[in-house]
Write a structure and sequence with these properties.
The protein has 13 helices and eight strands. With 316 residues, it is α/β, with parallel strands linked by helices. The protein has a single domain, classed as Alpha/Beta hydrolase fold, catalytic domain (Rossmann fold, 3-Layer(aba) Sandwich). The protein has an eight-stranded mixed beta sheet, with helices on both faces. GO terms for molecular function: catalytic activity.
Length: 316
């Protein structure tokens, strides 16, 4: 994390180690934060075009008494791409195998799965496929098809952008995907905070990590997967599990990808789900309101609060 990060000081006191594991024949890089023998383990899955850095502010606010594991999704950050087509089934199977590799039941009996944005779809698919977690946290979940979200026009522009990147020659398509001006437009559109220092840092994060992918195929397949799937399609299979999953949904009232009414509808469909809403924040809860996220996660897991937070009373 950048030393200019507003969360750097809190993160610096939390132990962290990088590891690798072979999953489905390829190498996955992951980072372990906190105490290895902590009573709770959370496996966190980041969003589209991100990597493990994006969820570090939540780690910083959670504190070191929780063991957190964050992999780079296949094809992003330092992780290898999966062989063949990376569709939702491929991501689901990868996550089931990765989760099994890093959460040995005898050593980590109280493991939790967490997904942000695109990561929420991957988590939902894996849970529907039998991933053995009994508690799950979804942050800014993709509750409906992104084209039906409150900013559907921007999503359609994104579809055209990725289609153009796909049909261009390899070098030109790769350059388009990494175009700094387009990345900045995305960042400016999604950031809702009026704090100039926080906005600058968010843009820096996107500049640094939003274009860190293995290949053009990796990002194009992930985008196609993200717009063709949503959490809702997996709800029936999750609810039908013999081992129920308790859900915490952390959502924002200014999310450009999924509007609040759709988030509430998703929560009502997931048996026994708890919904918490942060005001004045959009799709970047992990950057703009990690204190809100950490406070509610600790409560959901039955852990004492680290400190009081007024995150739920934020103003636009």
């Amino acid at each position: 994390m950048s030393p200019f990060s507003p969360f750097a000081a809190k993160l610096a006191v939390i132990p962290v180690n990088e590891h690798t594991v072979g999953v489905r024949g390829v190498t996955t890089h992951f980072w372990q934060y906190g105490q290895p023998d902590a009573s709770k383990t959370i496996v966190m899955i980041h969003g589209f075009r991100g990597d493990h850095h994006g969820l570090e502010p939540i780690v910083a606010e959670l504190g070191g008494d929780v063991r957190v594991i964050i992999p780079d999704l296949p094809g992003f950050g330092a992780s290898d791409a999966l062989p063949g087509v990376s569709d939702i089934q491929a991501y689901s199977l990868w996550l089931q195998d990765f989760y099994a590799a890093v959460t040995v039941p005898s050593a980590h009996p109280h493991s939790v799965i967490l997904g942000h944005s695109f990561g929420s779809i991957v988590v939902a698919a894996a849970l529907a496929g039998g991933l053995p977690a009994h508690q799950a946290v979804l942050i800014n979940p993709i509750a409906v098809n992104a084209l039906k979200g409150p900013n559907g026009f921007m999503t359609r522009l994104a579809v055209l952008y990725y289609k153009a990147a796909a049909v261009l020659p390899e070098k030109a398509g790769f350059a388009l995907l990494k175009n700094t001006a387009i990345v900045r437009i995305m960042s400016v559109t999604m950031a809702k905070t009026k704090d100039p220092e926080l906005r600058t840092w968010i843009h820096e994060q996107h500049d640094s990590y939003f274009s860190d992918f293995v290949s053009r195929a990796s990002v194009l397949e992930a985008f196609e997967t993200s717009v063709n799937n949503d959490v809702n399609q997996f709800v029936d299979a999750i609810n039908a599990r013999k081992d129920p999953v308790a859900f915490l949904l952390l959502v924002a009232d200014r999310d450009d990808i999924t509007a609040l009414p759709e988030q509430k509808a998703l929560a009502s469909r997931l048996t026994g789900a708890r919904l918490e809403v942060v005001k004045g924040v959009g799709h970047l809860v992990h950057y703009e309101a990690p204190d809100f996220a950490a406070h509610n996660i600790r409560s959901f897991l039955g852990l004492p609060p680290r400190q009081a937070t007024s995150a739920t009373t934020r103003t636009p």
